[in-house]
């Protein structure tokens, strides 16, 4: 059984899959409390569903892409079984994870979108750095940036850990906090091998998260 906050069909708003029609499975619960979190409604509550029920709901949308998100999906042990079941069904599956929990047991067919928490998140000490050893070229690393201090910190991690040699790296500005044009200028000035990403769903629909 899993606690599920919502299952819905929308455009992927982030990562290299931005713009692709996707089914989102938002699991309930998260051990982190990032200052910019926009899904705090998924911290508690939700509905108990077994994996077969979740799979039927996903299939009703006839999707190609499926994203398991949260909250923090890996906070529920049965999320690993769900991810494998989705891959076995032939979906192209991605996992959005905070980077605070071990990803080593996640099915390798899953594209793991791993956050690295910056100072501005308030949860930098929760980063589980051993996760970097598990990443492959079809995974992605994401830095959500609050300000120039976060940018400088992320740039230092990017270069010293040679993250761009592991997998694609995304720099994302916190919505309505860091000017995307300023972030673009910094990236260009420093010639960083990263992708600037926006939250497409918020550009389309404003604060209506995910829809």
Write up what this structure looks like:
The chain has five helices and nine strands; from the N terminus they run βββαβαβββαβαβα. It has a nine-stranded mixed β-sheet with strand order 3-1-2-4-5-6-7-8-9. It has one domain: Aldolase class I (TIM Barrel). The chain has helices at 51-59, 79-88, 148-160, 180-190, 200-205; strands spanning 2-11, 21-27, 47-49, 65-69, 92-97, 111-115, 140-145, 169-173, 195-196. It is an alpha/beta fold. The longest helix is centred in the C-terminal third of the chain and has 13 residues, at 148-160. Substrate binds at residues 11-13, 26, 69. [4Fe-4S] cluster binds at residues 30, 34, 37.
Name the descriptors.
211 residues; alpha/beta; TIM Barrel; nine-stranded mixed β-sheet; 5 helices; 9 strands
Element-level helix/strand string:
EEEHEHEEEHEHEH
Q: Determine the mean pLDDT.
A: 95
Briefly note the structural class of the backbone. alpha/beta
Distance from N terminus to C terminus (CA atoms, Å) equals 25 Å
CATH architecture: Alpha-Beta Barrel
Total number of strands: 9
* Number of structural units classed as domains: 1
Q: What does the secondary structure layout of this molecule look like, with pairings?
A:
Blueprint lengths: L1 E10 L9 E7 L19 E3 L1 H9 L5 E5 L9 H10 L3 E6 L13 E5 L24 E6 L2 H13 L8 E5 L6 H11 L4 E2 L3 H6 L6
Parallel strand pairs: 2-4, 4-5, 5-6, 6-7, 7-8, 8-9
Antiparallel strand pairs: 1-2, 1-3
